[in-house]
Amino acid sequence: MSEVLVLVDHVGGSVRKTTNEMLTIARRLGEPSAVFIGQLSDDATAALKQYGAEKIYVIDPNAVGPYLVTPKAEVLAQLVEQASPAAVLMSSSAEGKEVGARLAVKTDSGMITDAVDVESDGGTPVATQSVFAGSYTVKSKVSKGTPIIAVKPNSATPEAVDGAGTVEQVSITISDAAKGAQMTGVEPKKASGRPELTEAAIVVAGGRGTGGNFEPVEQLADSLGAAVGASRAAVDSGWYPHTFQIGQTGKVVSPQLYVATGISGAIQHRAGMQTSKTIIAVNKDEEAPIFELVDFGVVGDLHSVLPTVTEEVTKRKG
Amino acid sequence: MNIVVCVKYVPDATGDRRFEADNTVDRVGVDGLLSELDEYAIEQALQIKEKTGDAEVTVLTVGPEGAVDAVRKALQMGADKGVHVSDEAIAGSCALSTSLVLAEAIKKIDHDLVMFGMGSTDGAMGVLPAMVSERLGVPGMTFGSAIEVDGDKVKIRRDGDTATVTAEGKLPLVASVTDQTGEARYPSFKGIMAAKKKPVETWSLSDLGVDAGLVGLDAASTTVENTEARPPRTAGEIVTDEDGSGAKALVDFLASKKFI
Ligand SMILES: Cc1cc2nc3c(=O)[nH]c(=O)nc-3n(C[C@H](O)[C@H](O)[C@H](O)COP(=O)(O)OP(=O)(O)OC[C@H]3O[C@@H](n4cnc5c(N)ncnc54)[C@H](O)[C@@H]3O)c2cc1C
Ligand SMILES: Nc1ncnc2c1ncn2[C@@H]1O[C@H](COP(=O)(O)O)[C@@H](O)[C@H]1O
Fold this sequence. Notes:
Radius of gyration of chain A: 21 Å
Radius of gyration of chain B: 22 Å
Helix content of chain A: 25-40%
Order of helices and strands of chain A: EEEHEHEHHEHEEEEEEEEHEHEHEEH
Distance between the termini of chain B: 60 Å
Number of domains of chain B: 1
Number of strands of chain B: 14
Largest sheet of chain A: 7 strands, parallel
Structural class of chain A: alpha/beta
Shape of chain A: elongated
Helix content of chain B: 25-40%
Number of helices of chain B: 7
Number of helices of chain A: 9
Order of helices and strands of chain B: EEEHEHEHEHEEEEEHEHEEH
Oligomer: heterodimer
Strand order of the largest sheet of chain B: 7-11-6-1-4-5-12
Structural class of chain B: alpha/beta
Number of strands of chain A: 18
Strand order of the largest sheet of chain A: 7-11-6-1-4-5-12
CATH topology of chain B: Rossmann fold
Bound molecules: flavin-adenine dinucleotide, adenosine monophosphate
Shape of chain B: globular
CATH superfamily of chain B: HUPs
CATH architecture of chain B: 3-Layer(aba) Sandwich
């Protein structure tokens, strides 16, 4: 069986859930090989083995240096040459897409981004994407070179199975061309203590209608164990950080439940939440377009509705 | 300094976008326009021009006949000249082939800084900047939420999920910018008049020396197997809040769906 390379998504060495999802997908297509760029700890090795990594290629972080993503694409190109994998998977983040795009040019291969599911058609990956603001579902294949697929969070339920997890150090030489853009500063983001937006089962989002006060939104989210999101209007007003923006130019979420409060439901916002399983809206304007897509809606002022809901939810959860 | 801004002509996102029988995007049924996300790249290019004083901004698009409208809009905003690469053979090209056409066209234009939007509003892959940077063999800095040019250095800030990163590179270089860089200007009346006199060249594949067999639907590196419209969502129950009744009904709904 062919190898399937998975570029490990990790923060400071700790493996993210998206990696487990990609390893699970990789197993549908062949033998998962994790590609870990960084300092591999025992914990990380165990995590990768637990989700079926047969091999773990390790690249010393010093080899890729302080340069932007280009060296990572060179690492993958070298491994593609060496292993002739059935596919290469990476997460569909800004960085993952850029690594994939460069790899596609280097190996003259087709690339698919934003996959929400990947199935196997006799070993050939078939990727599902959600396009045009979630109004179409598209299935595609790569028809040239090595399939390169950037996979979105939550695209598979991680399945634990023991992999051999054989660690293989890879030495690599980075071209001078890859050194042209250099990182000059990295400022890690503080964790919010809430579930990761793209992975949360429930998201409560606030828009311009909050008037800048996100407290009722956050409190409702906490009572439901939800993540907090925001519309671009709220982000542009400086009320909530951009990392939490939902929509075309923010995050795309597809939770079990999405609660939109004080959000009108512009097409660009819908692009980020339209595929949510259940949608609830609270908006004081009964004509707001968001009401066209809700399973349940309340026409009312969020500043009075949300606190009452929070109180009642907390009571019922006991 | 010479700045090239790559812009795409896309179907209006507020229109009823659909696929054709051959699974390509219907570019006739919905009005086309300059991709909104590329306006941010044009705006940043114009601001860099205003700051450095001696820059020339060329707008480049690859697309069907109507795509020249996207170039015109950019000229109205203040860009200096335009290039429209148009060839029947390009229809249905994948990102990989489009990046080849763009790279070959850029090579024919004097360039120091090549700018892109963060993603097209139709394809939304956000991969072309990296692909073109790779083909040109120059550094790439993508998804800048702020960009600054200082002599022959370009600095960007990238607002990532887990960290905010600042990066620096030397010209020549490819950069893409997000909608966080700040609102784009509207064309002024003067700008609209001035644009009429600005030069726009139209190039075919043979002008670029690109083999037609490398582009188009038949040569695409990815194939769409199937497209399916999602059933439109239908509005559910809507209640009007009166003295807390809305909150109660909402909680009952949450309970009925087992969210609490
Ligand atoms: C290129 C581009 C990209 C974009 N990307 C995004 C994106 O990624 N995400 C995004 O969200 N938007 C995006 N937008 C912006 C989008 O078009 C809308 O402008 C934005 O979503 C509006 O945010 P909003 O719904 O919070 O504000 P508004 O449209 O102003 O709506 C506020 C709503 O709150 C309601 N309201 C007011 N007060 C109360 C109250 N007390 N209680 C209850 N309801 C109340 C009002 O009735 C109204 O419906 C983008 C736009 C462009 C052009
Ligand atoms: N046909 C095209 N002509 C010129 N520029 C393009 C074209 N397609 C995409 N671009 C540029 O590449 C960016 C990313 O596009 P994409 O990878 O399709 O999301 C866009 O924001 C544009 O700046």
